[in-house]
Amino acid sequence: MPDITPAEIESFGQLCGDLSAALALALSEQINHEAIVDIPEVQEISVSDLMARADTQLCTTFHFSSLLTAESLFLFSEDAACVLADLIEGKQGANTTALTEAQVSLLETGMSGVVRGLATALGNIHGDTLELEGVGTHLAPIALPPVFAMSSSALQVVFPITLPDMLDTRLVLLLIPEMAKALLPNTQEEPVHSEILGEDELAAMLSELTGDAPPAPSSEPASHAGELPVPRGIELILDIPLEVTVELGRVRMLIKDVLELSNGSIVELDRVAGEPVDLLVNGRLVAKGEVVVIEDNFGIRVTEILSPADRVAGLSRGR
Q1: Same domain, 208 and 159
Q2: Looking at the 3D structure of the chain, how many domains does it have?
Q3: Are 93 and 86 in contact (CB under 8 A)?
């Protein structure tokens, strides 16, 4: 079985395309100049071919602290590195001479920022935080990390980069196939399809749940005797929070009367003693009951419930 399938290579190419904007922003911030990163090209390449290359490159080796911790490489050509170093120093990007150690040090800091931007973008895609470890940059012929020796092939991602009115170059990402597969978002989970329920559908669900209408057929046995079967689709609304209020009564008062209230004042409600109190959900009446005391707490024993259609109509309108 190959290290990586064509379908996985295509998916990884789409992922790299999603990362282009983040890389452009990260590089622009480091060189203080606009950088445009175009759609990348991804291909599988022989590790032996990579090892045979002798040209000098600006090589940045890095790995993450989570996912697969295999090392990967970013590569810039020496000519492009000269221009980038000149821009980092605040110049015009016209340097075509050999890089000094001080400039390589500046490039190391700049490439660390670029890789950090990549880690942030990947973390956003995975919904997690990716920390960097072991970032290092040097100017030399390509020296592959030892992890590449355990694979016959590698993935090469070529990001075309344009610095307007200055330079057209490319940023090359090299990584082993296992790392590419680890970076792919998890697609094994069954997708969840959400839908907006209308008032009639919601009323039907709650009607089935309360037993006022025949429950929807279900092939799953009831877990406990006496429990009402849960209708199909009810899980879509089970986690919706509702505000439940018990109302003893109401009264309208003038502002001056409210201001005259003091300790010991009595406020007469529009409710006769012993009359059922109202149970409201999201400000809508759904039931009536009587006040009870449970240990040291007040409670309500439900004595009357509005019809399911009336309850759902009230809940769907909210306050």
Answers
A1: no
A2: 2
A3: yes
